[in-house]
């Protein structure tokens, strides 16, 4: 019995067995197209549709949104999403494409939207039929998110929205957006409000989506421009002027410190080792080192490389065990101490693992995606570059350290 | 032998450095460079090498490729510090050209010390661009390793990771001949040579596998190991010089951004989480630059210290470049993650440089062999 299984409630134990059986018979077919490293780099419709089919199938089987109420399209279970996640992780699947929907929009809508809107929006979000995006950042408001300028003006029971969002991942496929904007110019934080707004149905009308190209040469994020978008007041989340508080729900979940467990899937397509659950790929480094040559010798025989891989494995294990400890009553000194570390550790271990991989590859680390001889298809240099998206987005790690220092250690507040 | 206190960096070297900086800045400023090498972001784009051969010709006409050629065969001896200064400026501009490659070949040929090698050096002094084809399929930097063989007096096999192979007219090839490992000089368009272009990360370079199928070539060294042993410190030093220049560009560009971009009503550079790492990048650049000039000076004035000082320079450069690159992207935020922001050109060139001729761990291991002695088998 695995550690996780031992502590299952009867409901979780039964559900775990169900997930295992279902996954055994229902793993998706090999993708017809090359998949990107993460949902944030989905570039083409065929990639999207393949991944959407997989999310829908897993949703229909009850593995996605297990803990949401039935009338919101969920499974109505108690604390079962983590069970589904663990079982999915154990078999390595393609990822769910609707990451922003599942990870950020769903909990925010669930905690803050009107009841009828939850019932309207959540089922198609959880099933992946509607892709969601997050309209927070603007050219002038990144780390300082509360300075957003996109403005909504009230006209009866409608709002007219104008402004400019940027770095909006998945906007090019999105039906819906969670949108933080300004309704009052005289107060920074209390002048913010939060909406969900339709994207795709307004394209070419009041919304323009322009793709931006990433450092890797991939697309995946966009500029989104609002030109008199009209939205019904019913799509406002929480009260006018309470946008910042609502955004905190989104950000907490984005950074892995939220109340609801995000449905997760993935791992396939990575050149990872046989051991499952290696989130950051440190076990993949072992395989890579065994097949790579550094200065003519097998990299796995190089004492320096061995030491560095072990360093990353230890960090990865530490991360896993911290997540486990965070759930044990009495084993942490401050409720947010571990949850707020998640984003930092996750992104920095991922970055360092990818950098180490390119070093393990030695001269062959110079080869990129289009080279037939590139180790692992050139994914490691790409992963290294993409890792900066993670250390910058969702609160740059510098800002994240400020938050930890201030909220957990009680150090004086910067701004 | 002792080093001069000024590293051999006198008035002539200052003039060369300044005119090189101006040349690169005027002829290929970063916006033009980006338009030249990064016009097509598609990672699966066709492998077309983008560079400016006419600018390279101007560099040749300015005599810059004669700097690494000994005076006795028509070179212009301003010392290795002059070459380092030139490479530093070329790195600062992330300039695409066979400058490093040709200097590398010049150093190896000079160390080969044969009539045929001297003739090859004369060709370089006369304007030929060349590159060293001496790496095997396993990316080995060891002097004895090669997948090219001499059969019936002709070259057969493949040289891997050949730098700027599409920009040169000559190859210097390392080949095994029975028990010996030799060096050969051959025209890039000789019968029996075929190039397989690598799709690399770095947009400012090209790289290829050079395949030899019964190619007639000129023997220039019967003991490749001896020539390489003497010359490799120069190769490590010059690539490290390129990295210093590139890193200084990364630093200044990021500092400039941190001085103007405002969040929380403050310039980014106000925050110590930005300020201190940028200062640390500066510290690492300065350490490396000093090690590079020390290594360059040793090449001329203290050859017995050349390997030790060059290992230090390249080890320091590789770690420094990784850090300078990572901070340059991180502190540019979302902008830094886009293709349109020029810093990715440098980020990718530095990734390539970090690996080239051995990364930091490799050079520290070799340094330890020199300083501590080899590990007992
Ligand atoms: C791949 C990717 C995907 C993204 N997807 C989305 C999306 O879907 N929706 C969305 O709304 N946004 C998205 N973003 C935007 C992201 O949230 C912002 O880039 C991020 O908040 C940083 O803002 P900025 O880019 O304006 O950088 P800036 O705020 O200008 O900061 C630049 C750098 O300065 C440093 N810094 C800033 N403030 C401080 C401080 N107080 N103390 C110390 N250091 C500081 C940090 O290193 C930071 O990286 C995405 C970004 C990336 C890279």
From TrEMBL, chain A:
Q: Which InterPro entries match?
A: Acyl-CoA_Oxase/DH_mid-dom, Acyl-CoA_Oxase/DH_mid-dom_sf, AcylCo_DH-like_C, AcylCo_DH/oxidase_C, AcylCoA_DH/ox_N, AcylCoA_DH/ox_N_sf, AcylCoA_DH/oxidase_NM_dom_sf, Mycobact_Acyl-CoA_DH
Essential cofactor(s): FAD
* Keywords recorded for this protein, A-Z: FAD, Flavoprotein, Oxidoreductase
What is the official name of this protein in its record?
Answer: Acyl-CoA dehydrogenase
Acyl-CoA dehydrogenase/oxidase N-terminal domain location, by residue? 9-129
| Residues in Acyl-CoA dehydrogenase/oxidase C-terminal domain copies | 285-409
Q: Is-annotated flag, keyword Zinc? A: no
Q: Does the keyword Transcription regulation apply?
A: no
Q: Which family does it belong to?
A: Belongs to the acyl-CoA dehydrogenase family.
Q: Which SUPFAM superfamilies match?
A: Acyl-CoA dehydrogenase C-terminal domain-like, Acyl-CoA dehydrogenase NM domain-like
Q: Origin organism of this chain?
A: Candidatus Litorirhabdus singularis
- Limits of the Acyl-CoA oxidase/dehydrogenase middle domain: 133-228
TrEMBL record, chain B:
Q: Does the keyword Nucleotide-binding apply?
A: no
Which cofactor(s) does the record list? FAD
User: A Pfam family for this UniProt protein?
Assistant: Acyl-CoA_dh_1
Under the heading Gene3D superfamilies, the entry gives:
Acyl-CoA dehydrogenase/oxidase, N-terminal domain, Butyryl-CoA Dehydrogenase, subunit A, domain 2, Butyryl-CoA Dehydrogenase, subunit A, domain 3
The membrane spanning regions, by residue number, are none
The residue ranges of the Acyl-CoA dehydrogenase/oxidase C-terminal domain are: 238-368
Q: List residues of the Acyl-CoA dehydrogenase/oxidase N-terminal domain.
A: 11-125
Question: What family does the Swiss-Prot or TrEMBL record give for this protein?
Answer: Belongs to the acyl-CoA dehydrogenase family.
The name of this protein is Acyl-CoA dehydrogenase
Task: Provide the species name.
Answer: Candidatus Litorirhabdus singularis
